[in-house]
What does this fold into?
Amino acid sequence: MTGLESLKTESTLYSKPESLADRATHYCAGCGHGIVQRLIAEVVDELNIFDRAICVSSIGCTVTSYNYFNFDGLESAHGRAPAVATAIKRCHPNLVPFTIQGDGDLASIGVAEIVHVCARGENLTIIFVNNAIYGMTGGQMAPTTLIDMYSTSTPGGRKPDTSGYPIRMSEMLSTLDGPAYISRVSLHNPANIRRAKKAIKLAFKTQLAGLGLSLVEILSPCPVNWKMDPVKALEFVAGKMTQQYPLGEFKISDAAALLKKDL
Ligand SMILES: Cc1ncc(C[n+]2csc(CCOP(=O)(O)OP(=O)(O)O)c2C)c(N)n1
It folds into this structure.
């Protein structure tokens, strides 16, 4: 094949999703939040729910997510996104609300909200970005910070005798009867990013099929607050983080499992 012929056969593999705004993000170099938002935008495009999707952002680095999506969004108080999304879904069942929440937001100040939205089994989607630290406020310890991990509030590393143990939210929430689908994925390499997209898509499809609450926990790097370069941060996610937070499905109803065949 000549160079010209091969040029003619080239096709576009990746283009910017229509749901993603054409705007630079405020995220730090090597942060995972932008990847998560791109995956969500791809899924919203593919499921053709642009007119029905609503991003309920909570407080944390993703608070201004509405700036990065072209579909609707609104901002809730810290930890309260599940309550706001509940109200949207109950008042407008045809809409497709989802929350985007950090680990400080979901597992600390909003821990009651997430437990009860799961216990109620609301038909909505939770995107939980676990970077094991309070990113927005400058790297304080979160409920998910690993033992011995540095944070500005545990400069000598998190110690269980003073700061307790990290919480595995997905495992804990999976003991409740309400959720239809709970899984944990990671952003540490392209193969895992592709898996993360599938999990996000299944979560949205679960809501669209009216099957109940879906939650995807995404392990995500925060190099600036972890004081690591981006490559080391990805190695940390692949190694220490996945040891503490194993990847996989923790809960999936039979009906939600059937939706996997056309992901
Ligand atoms: C009621 C309330 N308490 C505390 C804060 C301060 N605050 C803002 S963001 C944040 C932590 C966010 O961390 P996380 O949810 O892990 O998200 P990240 O920024 O890491 O993505 C805190 C404590 C606040 N804005 N409102």
